């Protein structure tokens, strides 16, 4: 799907790709719409693209419906381990955190990492850095919802892990700035310490001035191996956003993976696609906005 933004401002949000129960479609669409509208308000007030993308993701982290922040999927020990990343296309500045257990909004911590001398912090080191930057600790149990606990117990009974979603946002501001932000709890019943594509530069999150910004969702190992977000943005040298997104997902599918990807290019063209059953998206531009649960079934 491809749209063209008006006024040179745009935000596009995804709530994750995967097998999504029909009963959850409406509440997920409400969530991504709320995130897109909040980010849009910031853009209209002259905020930069990075601020808008982070705001959209922060809202989704606080929504227990999505697999990010509160309500994240649980690992094999029954805890949420969170990954997030942000990237500013103008400076190619990148900040990521991974396997964090005690931060309610890992996307905010990822922003602080971006402003530090580092690119990626993990586990206990990321938690200590959060305290240094004034981000309070939360009780890890506060991130666990009854819904995710029930899913975890079911997965443990049947001795199998599950693919779950990720949330993300991309934005274009009035100065032509591009940015991306992504956050996830990762796969259900994953190994302790497992890190997916979301916090890795170019894998699940990427932005470059004059080209575009992308955020991915899906089976992270495959997106990491193909550098899916970077692949999509780099393809804009020759392809339209719609073609670039499809090319990147084709590379993921070639390895046996599935998922989705959203993109905004420097001309304000919005594109998204997925190879998993469903993906929720919402967007806002000067010509209006909308939300959709794209469905391949």
List the helices and strands and how they pair.
Elements: E1 2-4, E2 10-18, H1 25-44, H2 49-61, E3 82-88, E4 93-100, H3 106-114, E5 120-122, H4 123-132, H5 146-158, E6 167-172, E7 178-184, E8 205-208, E9 212-218, H6 220-226, H7 228-234, H8 241-254, E10 259-265, E11 269-274, E12 278-285, E13 288-295
Parallel strand pairs: 4-5
Antiparallel strand pairs: 1-11, 2-6, 2-12, 3-4, 3-7, 6-7, 8-9, 9-10, 10-11, 12-13
Characterise the protein shown here:
The protein has 8 helices and 13 strands. With 297 residues, it is an alpha+beta fold. The chain has one domain (2-295): Glutamine Phosphoribosylpyrophosphate, subunit 1, domain 1 (4-Layer Sandwich). The strands form 2 sheets. It has an 8-stranded mixed sheet. α1 (25-44) packs antiparallel against α2 (49-61), α2 (49-61) runs antiparallel to α3 and α6 (220-226) crosses α8 (241-254). The radius of gyration is 17 Å and the shape is globular.
